[in-house]
Design a protein that fits this description.
Blueprint (H helix, E strand, L loop, with lengths): L6 E3 L9 H9 L4 E4 L3 H10 L6 H8 L3 H11 L23 H19 L6 E6 L6 H10 L4 E5 L6 H8 L5 E4 L12 E4 L16 E6 L2 H10 L6 E5 L32 H6 L4 E4 L5 H9 L4 E4 L1 H4 L8 H12 L5 E4 L9 E4 L8 H5 L12 E4 L5 E4 L5 H6 L13 H8 L5 E2 L3 E2 L26 H9 L10 H7 L18
Parallel strand pairs: 1-10, 2-3, 3-4, 4-7, 7-8, 8-9, 9-10
Antiparallel strand pairs: 5-6, 11-12, 13-14, 15-16
Helix pairs in contact: 1-5, 2-5, 3-4, 3-5, 5-6
Length: about 500
Amino acid sequence: MNEYPVILQGGMGAGVSNWRLAQAVSRLGQLGVVSGTALDQILARRLQDGDPGGHMRRGLNAFPFSAMAERIWQRYFIAGGKSERTPYRLAPPHEKDNPRELIELDIVSNFVEVFLAREGHNNPVGINYLEKVQTAHLSTIYGAMLAGVGYVVMGAGIPLKIPGVLDRYVEHRAAEYTVHVTGALEGEDATMVFNPRDYLECELGPLTRPKFLAIVSSNTLAATMLKKANGRVDGLVVEMRTAGGHNAPPRGKAQLSDAGEPIYGERDAIDMGKLRELGAPFWLAGGYGHPEKLREALEQGATGIQVGTAFEFSDESGLREDYKRALLAKAMAGEAHVFTDPLASPTRFPFKVARLEGTGSELEVYAARPRICDLGFLREAYRTPEGTVGYRCAAEPLSLYVSKGGNAEDSLGRKCLCNALLANIGHPQARNGSRTEQGIVTAGDDLGCVPQFLAPGRSSYCAAEVVAALLRGLPLSAGRSSADARSFAHCSPSIEHPHCAELETV
């Protein structure tokens, strides 16, 4: 693998960028990335589903602290899996002061996901986090580093203090992170502290510091990260507004199109010349999942591209099969549509939603769902009248939200993305024995272009085919030998994806 990969696989949603997908991409010499969002709940649900294939047990067996791993197993594993109508047992929601039970689950779940993604090859694997999910950072990052994660990628906020956390964890030293608390008064403590040595069951040698990539959406934020972070920033992922998931809101006065989507203008454009002047490696993201866009990115001075949507619909991704096949069929028929919803996310950031019948993308489907907030990853920390830290979500029951000081208008159109994202990957919560949570699929604007990766007569494709297609036609002088180029086009034969080994060379 070269010093830096040309292709970064995006860290999409909770569990979509799973260990299988990241492993498949990293095996090919590019950077496979697991999503770090909600891994605690995902591990707990996989275990309650009976751990099909025994993969979670294998990861737990590799964890260096056996007693901690066994506590997780005993708490959540159900032999044969729970019944479909039985609700999942929930882990506690994250707060500024998390209970030991949750911290251990954070550490173990992030370790397991990275460990499994690293199996069978020697190339780096990355993990993607959302900065706005602040109360989970300290324990989750440590778990990923225990597993030897090669890259930490973070956006959806300004992660200036994360590089310093990585530096301290190399020697298992305590780290801290300040939580943003709405309404906090000057001098009030909002700092989380995590000391790895409080959790060690045996002495460990130094860990390897992963490279840190900050996701940015403007030249100003790019410069800020490089100049003001409390440690080394190894590169930047520059996400355009067409990228899936949460988007940065438009700069300036908010305006909506006739369709109800945010309008972006010249102030939201990236100045590539100024980006190059910063001197840091950078990858371009958002609509770059095409061979010609990779060539364009390299010509503009980028190290490469980040691609999400194309990998989201590959065989290895964690997106549930019925959603995957239905949206692929829509894309093939020219009927795929992604709506940039300015209201859906409780975070107040625009959120891209793929329109799909029977999911929460339909107003009538979501309107039938009672307002419930029991996962809380996107909750807002706020100062209570008593001076303590409370938590509220614009998608929780309206009366409860208002009682916590929330503005009723801020709740209009907000959706519970936390439960929807877990439903997207086949772990929907059961409610009252008769109803299950519906998903809300997010994708980039180029969803309609994913059929380019389908071979004639086929209705699915694998990650290796995405990598091969993106790299096809690039000159060998772009940092690769002919042997490298051949290796990019092949993945190991498997029962699941036998056609991957038959791909023609680049």
